[in-house]
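Q&A log
Question type: sequence-to-structure
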Amino acid sequence: MAFDLDLSNPYPSGADGHFYGGPGQGGHVGDNWTISHGMDLGAPVGTPVRAAFTGKVTNIFTPAAPSGGIYGDQISIRQNPDSAGGVGAFYTHLRSNVTVGSFVSRGEIIGEIVEFGDIPTHLHLALGERRNNVYAGVNLYDHFMATANTDTVLMVRFFQDGSAPQLA
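Response status: OK
Response body:
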């Protein structure tokens, strides 16, 4: 069943205007939706990162153990956490200030950008539509680039049938 979700940019302010690639670009390839559908949104160290939508924090890796701890924390947030459908978000390259099990509101600060290695500082954000307990990556990179440094709210319709979401 289709549903609409209000999404906000994780940077209503502070983005540095550098966008380092979206889904399928650069290193964003492979079968894992958190990588292949990643959006790299530039910002200086210390920039607050906000939740793109209201949901429940389901996982935090501090520092990101799956990556050897070199990329800062990884945070997963699920909209509609008690359902087989909905949307999930994966954030990394930040220092978390939320806890697993907590609910966050769209626009709430969930962490801040950290420096790692010699890679330009940025947020890696991936969105996935959850259908029957399986995630499929969602490409909203152009919309996040267009709304950086604004408080614009996008209403996005998710059809839950395998078709791409659309701005409602």
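Response note: The longest helix spans residues 141-147.
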